[in-house]
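User: Please fill in residues for this 136-position structure.
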């Protein structure tokens, strides 16, 4: 979908790094129950990247994986726990966790998926927001 020169990403502790040539599929906010549990968040922002456009740059030996549903593997740092990608080995792409990118991919979210799994506390109503901590 988007062309950029070498987009880099990494885990929280920096032990694992990767790079991709571009995002090949739109950014989606996935609200499925497994993403909620895996990321401890209301949704995970993801995008598909063809395997030939993705490569580990360092720390691949630090990767751990978990089969979260039949045939789907989630890869994360064995040190800090950051979820980096998911894959179904039979597919031609990996699913990158957009929040682990270090560079702006020059693309913006295109959709929310699996919203039928939204929790009651996740509301679309307007609530206050702050650029940092709430002022005292």
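Assistant: Residues filled in for all 136 positions:
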């Amino acid at each position: 979908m988007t062309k950029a020169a070498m987009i880099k990403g990494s885990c929280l502790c920096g032990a694992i790094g990767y790079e991709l040539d571009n995002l090949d599929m739109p950014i989606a906010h996935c609200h499925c129950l497994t993403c909620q549990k895996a990321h401890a968040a209301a949704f995970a922002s993801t995008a598909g990247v063809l395997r030939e456009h993705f490569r580990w740059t360092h720390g691949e030996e630090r990767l751990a994986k978990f089969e979260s549903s039949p045939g789907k593997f989630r890869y994360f740092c064995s040190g800090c726990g950051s979820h980096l990608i998911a894959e179904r080995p039979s597919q031609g792409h990996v699913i990158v966790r957009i929040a682990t990118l270090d560079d702006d991919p020059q693309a913006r979210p295109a959709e929310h998926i699996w919203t039928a799994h939204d929790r009651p506390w996740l509301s679309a109503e307007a609530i206050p927001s702050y650029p940092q901590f709430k002022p005292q």
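For context: The CA atoms of residues 37 and 43 lie 9 Å apart.
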